[in-house]
């Protein structure tokens, strides 16, 4: 009896062992797959936590203020803003959309915002007075901002009730005017040190065999303009950069005090740009995208040379021959629209889209492509596409790789030449729709954590409060998150 019992016990052990082993293996595989899918997000969360625990003077922060969580401010501000243009009508540019998003959000927070600008359509319009938002159109005969007229309106409003602070988008308030304004901050959407990179890439692309004429004259003139810009930048009191790399340039190259340089990233309306597969499917059907395509790429913006369209046109022409199931949607207007249409049935040129259509456009894509040859600032289209859950394919400029496409989990980067762009397109095609969806989900999470209108407005609000009253420069306050 004992022997039989012993044998049964002995024979049951392999089954028990197999059961335990299979359970352990299954658990291991699940854990491995979990780590594979979420490790990029974990890495990001780790880097995020280092910044969230910041304590001290915000003027000493060496990272984007968007990474912090500011509480509700009880103090209200009266701000003057000089902006190149204000969005009117369809298809406004990125700068106009940025201005509208930021100042509308600040006005909604209860701050009194006075904007001195010109309408984007360069036509005559009545001033806008809507709640706390006041837009004064001061145009010259060509539809651009009349600086003298805008400054006169500013002085008139300032005498009635003094502004707490003055903000200018780039040089909308020229430095010789800023010299006489005691409280002024400027946001740089591009500096000449970065623009020199643009001229370099455009020269290499348009004149690969050193054939003149070309943009060489502009490239030669870039250095004197850079020196001039470095000399007058210090006239502005405080500087806001929209990318990490631009902030470093202003400190290391332009030699501005670290305490006067701050990074606040642009944001887009997170309520308008959201994942919506159904809207994307309807958009595809509306514009005649074949149902059996393997991959849909998309590009949006002005269809001009410096936006990189010569690059994408040639690269896609090569790629589509090897991958006839890949489709390209082109949203925007400009001279390159006709050339894209000549590429055949794999390309659909949509023309300029209404702002309300942009989110549906992004949702119709598998990958958003931005081949820009202008490595300055941050293109809002990248952020909008990421908010809609789409990975991006874009050049490897420092302003982008340091701030937006942190690693390959967010999409694909390439050097600004045709061969490198073809390789990046091949990588996206090889990954396929399932992997692109996974990357898109990570992009959406990151965008919501960094590139929202609410985070941008909250950071600007705290910046201006800090400039008015230094007690707001301390972080965290009891009212902060």
From TrEMBL:
Where the record annotates domain Glycosyl transferase family, the positions are 296-436
UniProt entry keywords in alphabetical sequence: Glycosyltransferase, Membrane, Transferase, Transmembrane, Transmembrane helix
Presence of the UniProt keyword Transmembrane in the record: yes
Q: List GO molecular-function terms, semicolon-separated.
A: glycosyltransferase activity
- According to the entry, every stretch annotated as the Glycosyltransferase subfamily 4-like N-terminal domain falls at 92-270
Coiled-coil portions: none
Superkingdom in the source lineage: Eukaryota
Q: Which gene produces this protein?
A: LOC113729378
Which segments cross the bilayer? 21-39
Entry-linked InterPro entries: Glyco_trans_1, Glyco_trans_4-like_N
The answer, when asked if tRNA-binding is one of the entry's keywords, is no
Instruction: List the protein's name.
Output: Uncharacterized protein
| Gene3D superfamilies membership | Glycogen Phosphorylase B
